[in-house]
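To: structure desk
From: M.T.
Subject: fold request, one chain
Message: Could you run this one when you get a chance? Sequence is below, nothing fancy, just the single chain.
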Amino acid sequence: MNRAEVTRATFTIAAIALLSSTAAATSPPVTVVSPCECLNNHGEHRWAVKNDPSTPPEDASAIQAVTPSDVFSWPGPAEHLMQSSERAGIENNWFALTGRVVAVKVEMDGDLHLALQDATGDKAGLVVCEIPAKQQWCSIRETVFSWTTTRFPFHTSSDRKLKLIGAPIITVTGKAYWDVGHAPKDQSNRRSHLPVVRCIGDSSGDEAGGC
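Reply: Done. Structure tokens follow.
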């Protein structure tokens, strides 16, 4: 498939996360050898939950279709979540999130973070979909990297934003996931004070803080 012709893809991953994680400044550089292989990648924020290997239910009616602006309207979690917390509340539900990819980053834990906004681009809300550096998601990672100008291998000592080719509209199927590492102290579902990509191009906007 020609990269410039990609307009829609359907992915199945373990987590629909709403915030990105960062690594400590003393952490060693991460080497991304290929789309599916990373060296020295590391993470700690609810690691077992984020790397949930479960597969979607066969009953399609058990998967709720949502958009980034839908998720943006969700309240924060009913209970205070910590790094050791198991899935709670809405995190146990399956969602099919459809939106336009407006940014892709490689995190220090090896995850790919896809920032999605509504396909129409006229509603507030940005949701981050995480694709772990695990073999079962290898083909998805290959597809995502094909949307960028990335060359392998490369080294990075911080989260690295990749240059996108186009802005594909995709549907990601997965469970919701609250990133405690960067959630506001009150665990509300907002991070309006941070600069994010809201439209196609750089601007200030609103990002959902968690679910």
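Reply (cont.): Residues 3-177 form one domain. Let me know if you need anything else for the meeting.
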